[in-house]
Amino acid sequence: MLAGLSLYFEDGHDDLDDFGFDDYGSECDGIRITAFLDAGQDNLTPLGRLEKYAFSENVFNRQIVARGLLDVLREFSDNENDFISVMETVARMSEDGEPTVRAELMEQVPNIAMFLHESRPNFPAAFSRYLVPIVVRYLTDPNNQVRKTSQAALLVLLEQGLISKADMETKVCPVLLDLTEPSSDDDYKIEAVAIMCKVVTMLSKDTVEHLLLPRFCDLCSDARLFQVRKVCAANFGDSFFVFEISETTTLFHSFSMIFFDLCSDSLWGIRKACAECFMMVSNSTSPEVRRAKLSPLFISLISDQSRWVRQAAFQSLGRFISTFANPSSTGFHFREDGALLEVPRDCSLNSLNCSDISGCHTGRTIAHTPPNQDGRATPSPEHVSTADSEEMHNFDDIHTSVPREMCGGFIRTFSNSNTNPTTTNNAKNAKDTEQTDENFNSFNYWRSPLPDISGELEMLNCQKSEEVIEEEEEEELDCPDSKSSPGKATSDQIQKVLDCLQPHMDDPDVQAQVQVLSAALKAAQLDSPEDDSPTDDGLTEPEPQEQPEDDIDIVSVESKSVEVQSESEESPTEEEQTMETSPASESSPEDSAHSPVFEDKPKIQNVIPQQLLDQYLSMTDPARAQTVDTEIAKHCAFSLPGVALTLGRQNWHCLKDTYETLATDVQWKVRRTLAFSIHELAVILGDQLTAADLVPIFNGFLKDLDEVRIGVLKHLYDFLKLLHADKRREYLYQLQEFMVTDNSRNWRFRYELAEQLILIIELYSHNDVFDYLRQIALTLCSDKVSEVRWISYKLVVEILQKLYACGADDLGLNFINELTVRFCHCPKWVGRQAFAFICQAIVEEDCMPMEQFGQHLLPSLLSLSSDPVANVRVLVAKALRQSVMEKAYFKEPCCAYSDELEETVMALQSDKDRDVRFFASLDPNKCLMDTAPLI
């Protein structure tokens, strides 16, 4: 605040002596603000002088007093009467006619309130009596600067919890309500709306709902001032979150309608504000409302006629999609610190019982999941708590097999074209269908209902029964052309269902349903009589002995599919569009990810509305950069981990192509964004998909620009620990490449490398550490930048600890000899100083037995006590006095090094350099000084 004093010195400096500001603090260069209280200037008491200058005719005097009120209160806080006098003076000063004085006074109110709160037992009464009225009155001050200052002060007081609930309800809220009256001044109303929207996040729900919510709803519909509606729209998300209105109340309905109206406002700025806060609103609603109401609303914003609205909507698209994430389906949740944690799958989350899950899982575990003997490192608890692999397969199997059984024949072989089902087989299929109904998975229960087509379904079922009877008769007669008629019937029946759905094409879910049926219709039409197997449709025929279990008539399955979807309100699953033959009960999503069929899967899923995903995938379209935002690809890359988490690893095929496109984007900022988040995506996808799809991209980032490589480097440990041991070992040869940068002055890159290597040591064997990481560490120890060198010395200590912890004493001894030659006998003093630092760190970390330390390192350390450079001797004294001599081994009377240690320390205590003497004599139990300036 003193920096602004020079602004008021324009009228002349000669008069300052007359105003009592001729004293200066002994330890500062500026004017001591409370100097006017000092005795000797006149015959007035300190309070009299305060009165004199607080109401002086000179504006500068009054400003100085206002600026120094906190110090004044400290001077008089011990005496209650004096304190009351000062507070009354403050109240009178608040009526000053000069705006700069009032603004200066208001800037001090939060500081004064905090001081009173900490030091005064009667704080609430004094604050409420003297300061709150000032803050409230200044909210209506005619000067804009004073009003802005009072608004900022009010928010600070609320954040610190210094204003009581009673004061808010009886003093602050009434003023805000008055300022937002329809007859209020426009400028006041706009400012009051802004402060009201911020206040609601700090007040109790009851206070907001009874006092501010009705007025907020009215302001959102203000037809005269678009600025008011814009402020309401920008803060709608926070308000919605605070209110937590039950969706069954009329209040929620009216609140929702207000938001819908704002999203369709005639002014693009208001629609843009709605798009920006859409995620907050979505977070405060239920999955049903999110899917049925908010999703179509967001689609309208994405296709808005204004480019700025579309830009804001696309920037919020990924965040909005992330609100569909459900920990029960994704298997992950976030801690308060933002760390992603994997949670165990709970069988109760699905309608399938645990016995069914385990029964279905056992065979697949044997066939597809090898024992976890690959040496993979388990992620640390602070990042990811890896669940049992069996639980992961259980979850994946549930989400793959259940929809497949419910929706049936789109992914099965067509029995009408290749086999002759028997009565036994039909009974078997009926039993399977019945079991599916009992084990129905109602996870996506919030889907909006499909149109009623029960009449058409009954007709299809009747036709189906007749066709089955006709088929059986034809089979008994061994008619060779029996398989041609059902194929035509199948096409006709699917076409009838499509015709029934045409009037409802406005519904996004119906559109997805039509896509499903269209794919089935095309497959049925391609199923010609000449085919002996469905391989022309891209399907693989199952084993002959398994065929009766898997065959089911396409018509009945199609009818069952639509019926189940209508009753359960569940969106079409991705398997309905893919037409693969391998049943979901036979493989997991990770296994299918490596098959050629996985590459051709359409980007269909049932977690979020398909239109949202389609719009998100279009963000990599070059045309979007021209029509929406030149940085739209960067926003897509930024939100991709959240979208991947929402969709789950079973739907990774929907995002894979988009991720690869972003990874090769011409803008390095896009690739940099991906590089910083690839480790999080690896956690979400799991080890198999990571090895197949992320490792190649990771390798590409390693060869990219430094701006991209730093993203990979900062989380190198987090990514490598998720890989198999053999794949992880391949990167040992590439770590050396991080030593080469585009700009040699980019020392922070090498610093980050050293920090990551300290963590990476635990992922490799002691032999690999000695063969590969040791040389990198020694190179970093010779860096030109001291920060890099000192973090590298810690890396050296960690390597030595790794060698001795693994019992590789011979390698440890070789490393010690190398350190002695490189540092202790270094011609440069910085190397010798580093040796002393390394020795101290080795002792403090107990990297090796003290007996071996005394034998191999202590003699070299003692020899540096007579080094000609004082900075070297300082660290030697510090290492000996604070670390070495504190070890029990060196305190023993029989220790061979105790006498030599005592003599060396005594010599250092009489050193000619005072810093050396200080550290050699310092009590180890005292607070240690930072020796960084000596380095």
TrEMBL record:
- Molecular function terms, GO-annotated: protein phosphatase regulator activity
Putative WW-binding domain: residues covered = 438-490
Q: List the residue ranges of the region (Disordered).
A: 365-389, 414-437, 466-491, 524-603
Q: Which residue ranges have biased composition labelled Polar residues?
A: 482-491
One Pfam assignment: HEAT
Q: Does the keyword Nucleotide-binding apply?
A: no
Q: Which SUPFAM superfamilies match?
A: ARM repeat
In this chain, composition skew of type Low complexity spans 414-428, 554-565
Q: Where are the HEAT repeats?
A: 294-330, 857-880
The source's superkingdom equals Eukaryota
Identify this protein by name: Putative WW-binding domain-containing protein
Organism equals Sander lucioperca
Lineage, top ranks:
Eukaryota, Metazoa, Chordata, Craniata, Vertebrata
> Gene name, please?
ppp4r1l
